[in-house]
Structures are given as structure tokens and as C-alpha cells.
Amino acid sequence: MAEDDHRVIVSIADDNLDRIGDVVDALRTAGLRVQDVQDVIGTVTGWVHDGSLGSLKDVSGVVDVEFDRTYQLPPEEGPQ
Fold first, then answer.
1. I need a labelling partner for 36 at 20 to 30 A (CA). Which of 20, 46, 56, 72 fits?
2. Whole-structure pTM value
3. Is the confidence at residue 1, as pLDDT, over 60?
């Protein structure tokens, strides 16, 4: 992945869940490299380049696009 690629979570509108395949196809066309589709809950995860981020929000049926942030706690210190 390039430095300007971001992992995102795309939320699909409830009234578009019956056509989620079409929405996913449109997301791919808009630049999303799809990693996973959770059709029951209406989310799609994947990677997108900075330049295509705004295009995802314009896809019909998309409610929200947010960055998928991961956090890692520092290792636990053992007894001393």
C-alpha cells in the first residue's frame, strides 16, 4: 500500500441493502479496492487512494465513509 492509501469502512443505506452488489460495483468503479463486504449489516471495507476518497461518498446508496483506525497498546510491562 502506498502512503496515501487509506483503509476505510463504507456504510450502506438500509434501503439499499437489497442492491448491495450494485453499490459495491459502483464503489470499485469509484476507486475502492474491496477487502470485505458485510451485507447483513451494510458495511464494506477496503483501501482507497487519497484522490478517490471523495468519489466514494458520491456513490448512490452510500451513507458514510470513514477511516478505519487501528490502535495498539504498548506491551504490558512484566513484574520487576
1. 72
2. 0.82
3. no
